[in-house]
Amino acid sequence: MTDIPRRAVSRTAKLAALPLGFAGRTVLGMGKRVTGLASDVISAEIQQRTAEQLFSVLGQLKGGAMKFGQALSVFEAALPEEIAAPYRQALTKLQEAAPPLPVATVHKVLVEQLGPDWRDRFVEFDDTPAAAASIGQVHRAVWRDPGYGPNGGPRHRDVAVKIQYPGAGDALLADLKQLSRLGGMFRAIQPGLDVKPLLVELRERITEELDYELEAESQRAFAAAYADDPDIYIPEVLDASPRVLITEWVTGTPLSEIIREGTEEQRDRAGLLMAELHLSAPMRAGLLHADPHPGNFRLLPDGRLGVIDFGAVARMPEGTPEPIGRIAALAIRGDADGVVAGLREEGFVSQTEPIDAPALLQYLQPMLAPVAEPEFRFTRAWLRAEATRLASPRSPAFQLSRQLNLPPSYLMIHRVTLGSIGVLCQLEAKAPYRAILERWLPGFAAVG
């Protein structure tokens, strides 16, 4: 059986062994020093061995470990290439080689969720999964549409049938509990990288992501908001139950493939549309797509961006908060006092503690370089430089960051924005990002 949880003791042992291996390597490497972010932390050799072991184990597991690996993957552009390379390799294997559910188990879930006559809904159903995800797998099928085709007969449509692994919820919680113990390992790979908030958020989202009917509701809202859009395509939901979701099949090039071997034109186009989706969705749909890893997107033959997963969304009925755009515009304009006032009002800066306004402006402006000029090309080098500036304990930016706070209401927006930037840097995409903000980010154009 390959159901989740399968061999739960073995899964737990693999995860639990990670910190022990790391501790042993740390002892063996005492006294070694390297340059860069880890200069006061650990040797390059131990850093790389830790990454290889960590990513190898993540790549062998489904459930929470796989979901965590996907969530963290959007930040790999900030890692040194010798560490990012094995990470990318592990995640690729994780997507392509995850053991499928037995056919009997697939059929059992379909009977439970769609009824004993589930086959009557399909003209064809491929028992071999087309893709695997953290909590389920996708099968390709041909849907028998109750509508009528051009000749009066039934209309047939290619569909994706997403089936949730039995026991996925329990496995997710167990894996995330184990992963919460690995903070030290991630700090060795990337000092300043605190994975605990990400794990807390993943735990909080589990209930929503396990409910495919809720995902269907979110996808329908996106599809209505982007109906007939020339740039973004949201597939139609055809049927949904708590553990089975049936949507139109999307044929296109996965963003992971474009990152790996796409042309400059494809990478720029994908980056432009990713930014468009991220910034426009709160205003158009009242929702934020909250899972920006490349596996959830396809570049279609006609140039549109296809979005295929809506398990993680943030509900933003009033759109993106206006202070984000207003404060960003003030920082680009160089209004240090206005920036401090805005940040104090939103709770990013203490109401009572003094703060050096020019230093704070200097801290923020490099982050806003992508929208300070009409066009910008995101690159891995830019992201690594920012990571170094912000995460090195000797950096003035690091010292100033200790005076800043991230209000809970901004946590999800912050995390998704960082994730989207990570993907844009993997794409190395050039686009007029400032114009996209001016169109979709409340408050940004008003001050500009």
Biggest β-sheet strands, sense, barrel:
6 strands, antiparallel
Tell me the fraction of residues in β-strands, as a range: 5-15%
Calculate the mean pLDDT score and round it. 80
Tell the overall outline: globular
Computed structural class: alpha+beta
Q: Provide the low-confidence segments as ranges.
A: 4-9, 18-42
N- and C-termini, Cα separation: 59 Å
Description of the molecule:
The chain is α+β, with helices and mostly antiparallel strands and 448 residues long. Helix content is 52%, strand content 13%. The chain is built from 20 helices and 14 strands. The chain has helices spanning 8-28, 44-60, 63-73, 81-96, 103-114, 168-179, 183-189, 196-209, 212-225, 255-261, 264-285, 322-333, 336-346, 357-364, 369-372, 380-391, 396-401, 411-427, 433-440, 444-447, and strands at 122-125, 131-132, 136-148, 154-164, 232-233, 237-241, 244-248, 253-254, 287-289, 297-299, 305-307, 313-315, 376-377, 430-431. The strands form four sheets. Strands 1, 2, 3, 4, 6 and 7 form a six-stranded antiparallel sheet that branches. Strands 5-11-10-8 form a four-stranded mixed sheet. A two-stranded antiparallel ribbon has the order 9-12. A hairpin with a 5-residue loop joins strand 10 (297-299) and strand 11 (305-307). Helix 1 runs antiparallel to helix 2 (44-60) and helix 13 (336-346) crosses helix 14. It is globular and about 70 Å long. 42% of the residues are buried.
